[in-house]
Amino acid sequence: MTTLDGLPQKSGFARYALVQDCNKNAPFKALICTLQMAGVLIRTRPDVIITTGALPGVIALVLGWMIRRRTIWVDSIANAEEASSSGKLAKRFATLWLSQWESVAQAEGGRYEGSLL
Fold this sequence. Notes:
This protein is α/β, with parallel strands linked by helices. The protein has helices at 7-11, 27-44, 55-66, 85-90, 102-108, and strands at residues 48-52, 70-75, 96-99.
């Protein structure tokens, strides 16, 4: 699943789902995103949900938690000093919470397994 139209095609993915992008200032878009994601999860029944980023990622984790799937959050490389606000919320629902910064992982009680870049 992605909120970025064109990204799956550019990356060579044949199967993907495009969902509404949203943020905390757009509750109606968040509702649409939630309903779209729920439909995809019901149809695909993933074993694991891995996500990064903002509110759509948190929504994916919450839905995964609700259907008892393993969930992995990777807090963004952009947050070198502290966990993102989405990342802080995601900790409640993530089976595994990772940060790309060792100091952030230690401060937040997450894990550091190396950086992606």
